[in-house]
Specification:
By secondary structure, the chain is α+β, with helices and mostly antiparallel strands. The chain contains nine helices and ten strands.
């Protein structure tokens, strides 16, 4: 039995690593942990009912307008968005309508023409719109030369402007893109190693049950923090939690099951605890490792709290895998030892005595 459990656990851990998505679990609209910070000033001139802000670590702009129609202009000065009492409209002839489909953009069809008369299409009845705007973040695959030369120096890379209008009144939202150096990951990695060592040397499955409960709770709270960073209402955040955590959900279920079973002394909780630890290790500890060295991360709380969660998942998850596999291996060795004794014709010390059958006497 111990051999089969050992093989199942090792296969499951390897499978988790193989199935891990290449992108960070922190990804928000294509942006993970970064050293870029996008800021915005007040709209000029002030417009009653109009609010513009940066959301999702500079990945998108959010505009709310409770006044008369406001038109947002695209990259060639063409009408791009219209927001007002009738809802949100997009100009399907605007090249920006296609370039802004994602953070990296989409192909612009031949029908798009910045000089053509707008063709408005309504896609929302509300007064709020969020869109990717390439004017507010760094679009290059490589760092700018000045940042690459001195990555440890904070600097404002450029100032940006998004123009709009309310009737005949020209309006502008302005801001800046700043490079903010990150921090050393060494203290956080040291914390993870201490946690891993403390769990890996555990001598009982009950201690591993506690570790499984803690790492499962931390991993779930971290996923909620990432989902709640998204701009939007509860429905948007819950949808992001479910979609972004699809890989982690089995680990959370197994973690809760492991705690319940192991604290009751049930051996069936052992593989569940190891797999739950491996899930937290891979999907939060390893995939979000860059959070430990970056200055900005998509997380609803402070980045310090984010780093604590990632370091805890990294350390406790590694400790659970190492400690659990070690205990399983030790049990496998004991089973092999008992089997060898039986093959030599010796009875194991804890084997039950043979039943004595009385002879019938005539």
């Amino acid at each position: 039995m111990a051999r089969r459990v050992f093989a199942v656990v090792v296969s499951a851990v390897v499978g988790l690593i193989a199935l891990a998505p290449p992108a960070s679990a922190h990804t928000v609209s294509g942006v993970g942990a970064t050293n870029w910070r996008t800021t915005i000033g007040p709209v000029s001139p002030p417009v009653p009912g109009l609010r513009v802000r940066v959301v999702e670590n500079g990945s998108r702009l959010e505009l709310v307008n409770h006044g008369p129609d406001v038109v947002v202009f695209g990259y060639q000065g063409e009408p791009y968005l219209r927001v007002g009492p009738a809802g949100v409209f997009i100009n399907t002839r605007s090249p920006a309508a296609y370039l802004n489909c994602s953070r990296t953009g989409c192909p612009v069809p031949a029908t798009a023409d910045a000089t053509a008369a707008p063709e408005w299409q309504r896609f929302s009845t509300g007064q709020t719109v969020r869109w990717h705007d390439h004017r507010i973040h760094w679009m290059g695959q490589q760092l700018p030369p000045d940042v690459a030369r001195a990555p440890g120096v904070a600097r404002t890379e450029f100032h940006w402007t998004v123009t709009m209008a309310q009737g005949a009144t020209a309006v502008a939202a302005t801001g800046a893109l700043t490079w903010v150096p990150g921090t050393s990951p060494v203290p956080w990695l040291a914390l993870a190693l201490v946690l891993a060592a403390g769990v890996a040397v555990a001598r009982s499955w009950r201690w591993l049950a506690v570790a499984a409960g803690v790492v499962t709770a931390v991993d779930f709270a971290h996923a909620v923090g990432v989902a709640w960073f998204w701009a939007g209402g509860w429905a948007v955040k819950v949808a992001q939690l479910l979609e972004g955590s699809s890989y982690q959900l089995p680990g959370w279920i197994l973690g809760a099951l492991a705690v319940r079973l192991l604290l009751r002394g049930r051996s069936r909780g052992r593989p569940a605890a190891i797999i739950a630890g491996a899930s937290a290790l891979v999907f939060t500890g390893l995939l979000d490792l860059t959070v430990l060295s970056r200055s900005e991360a998509p997380f609803a709380g402070s980045i310090g709290l984010d780093r604590v969660a990632v370091a805890a998942c990294l350390g406790l998850g590694l400790g659970l895998v190492a400690g659990g596999v070690r205990l399983l291996a030790a049990e496998r060795v004991r089973v092999d030892y008992l089997d060898d004794d039986d093959e030599d014709g010796e009875r194991a010390p804890d084997a039950a005595p043979a039943a004595v059958v009385p002879l019938a006497v005539s």
